[in-house]
């Protein structure tokens, strides 16, 4: 069985016309081994698969020192382009760094159309998601980090230094908190 791979850049980065998929191709989620996202991506690309792994800047603390590192936006996940009728998609599951393709029954489950494309459109030239650019006062957001991580809120104030004030619904009343814009995910 031969595999026809479309000749185009394998790794997706802004500025390149790499998001365009040909007929039959879809984006699929790949669940990786712990801390194996980069290894899985490199090994998939070496096999000719096109991949996309959105990243974010994260503050890491070690031995009382803080440093900013690049980290996957979705820990243990990345995206791969496949045509299940054309590509040898089962090879993805046996790739070093990959735990498994996200499946539904016996076939890989495609990511809903538009999601990966929207993520790709929000990345900079280094593949870092810049979601703060999409923030609008009054719009709903999800807090990603800190003591209120994974809470829904409404954006109340945004300044030029990247600090924001959001309103959280807690115990039947609205509570205002401050955080960095990078800690928010726009929902609208």
Would you summarize the structure shown here?
Helix content is 11%, strand content 37%. With 188 residues, it is mostly beta strands. It has two domains: 26-129, 2-Layer Sandwich (Alpha-Beta Plaits), CATH 3.30.70; 132-186, SH3 type barrels.
Q: CATH superfamily assignment of the largest domain?
A: NusG, N-terminal domain
Principal-axis shape equals globular
How many beta-strand runs? Answer: 13
Strand order of the largest sheet: 12-11-10-9-13
- β content, as a range? 35-45%
CATH architecture group name of the largest domain: 2-Layer Sandwich
Q: What does this 3D model show about the protein?
A:
- The protein is mostly beta strands.
- The chain folds into 2 domains: 26-129, NusG, N-terminal domain (Alpha-Beta Plaits); 132-186, SH3 type barrels (Roll), CATH 2.30.30.30.
- The protein contains 3 helices and 13 strands, in the order βαββββαβββαβββββ.
- The strands form 4 sheets. A 5-stranded antiparallel beta sheet has the order 12-11-10-9-13, with no helix packed on it. The protein has a 4-stranded antiparallel beta sheet with strand order 2-5-1-6. Strands 3-4 form a two-stranded antiparallel sheet.
- Strand 7 (103-104) and strand 8 form a beta hairpin.
- The longest helix is centred in the first third of the chain and has 10 residues, at 37-46.
- The protein is globular and about 50 Å long.
């Amino acid at each position: 069985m031969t595999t026809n791979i479309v000749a185009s850049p394998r790794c997706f980065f802004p500025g390149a016309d790499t998001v365009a998929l040909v007929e039959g191709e879809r984006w699929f989620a790949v669940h990786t081994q712990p801390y194996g996202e980069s290894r899985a991506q490199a090994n998939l690309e070496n096999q000719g698969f096109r991949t996309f792994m959105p990243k974010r800047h994260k503050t890491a603390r070690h031995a009382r020192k803080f440093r900013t590192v690049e980290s996957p936006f979705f820990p243990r996940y990345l995206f791969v382009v496949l045509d299940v009728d054309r590509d040898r998609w089962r090879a993805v599951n046996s790739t070093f760094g990959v735990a498994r393709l996200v499946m539904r029954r016996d076939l890989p489950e495609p990511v809903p159309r538009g999601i990966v494309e929207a993520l790709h459109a929000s990345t900079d030239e280094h593949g870092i998601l810049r979601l703060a650019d999409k923030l609008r006062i009054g719009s709903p957001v999800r807090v990603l980090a800190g003591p209120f991580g994974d809470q829904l809120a409404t954006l109340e104030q945004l300044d030029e230094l990247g600090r924001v004030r959001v309103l959280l619904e807690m115990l039947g009343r609205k509570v205002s908190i401050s955080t960095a814009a990078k800690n928010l995910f726009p929902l609208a």
